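Hey team,

Filing this mostly as a record. A colleague (T.K.) asked me to run one chain through the structure pipeline before their review meeting, and I want the input and output archived in the tracker in case anyone asks later how it was produced. No errors, nothing strange. Just documentation.

Input sequence:
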Amino acid sequence: MAKLYFRYGAMNSGKSTALLQAAYNYEERGQHVLLAKPAIDTKGASQIESRLGMTREVDFLIGAEDDARALFQRERDRVRGEATAGLLPQEPADVACLLVDEAQFLTPEQVDDLFRIAVEDGIPVLAYGIRNDFLTHAFPGSARLLAIAHTLEELKTICRCGRKAVFNGRRVGDAFVFDGEQVAIDGAAVTYESLCGNCYLQESGGRLS
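Output structure:
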């Protein structure tokens, strides 16, 4: 049976890099993969961007109201059609894996769609994302993935002090902030730093939410 995997880690733990490497590994063996990410993640527009400089266009974006399984099936049908028409050189003529970046931004219902893709459609799904926001609250998509994914894998990174980082501190300019909307995409105005529990508490004045 195909499985739903949730590979999670704090910011800068190499999630997008790992996703792109997984896609490469499948394709090196002549298999087809589909890449997707939530449309709310405007960084990179319709591309997955690794902090190491690698980029790749996604096959589809998932809007807040979209049926993720229906979008997957549309793209799966496209791959099958192109393979049948001889437009794709590789065999077999089907999708081997779905890879989803920034999965924390999915709705719980869309995570359920990913589960059904794995269990009912027989296609492994590798979802990559972070567990918690800058206030240590679980993202709804991540909470659902932690609840129903067949396999959970942590991608580790370190804090500035050398300890294991588990939290995501939000910076506006040079200052950490602990108020604001849950979603603020990393960019020119807002940046994030991976922190261990000790450094997070120091920056927040002991606040955890």
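Quick notes for T.K.: The first helix runs from residue 15 to 28. The mean pLDDT is 92.
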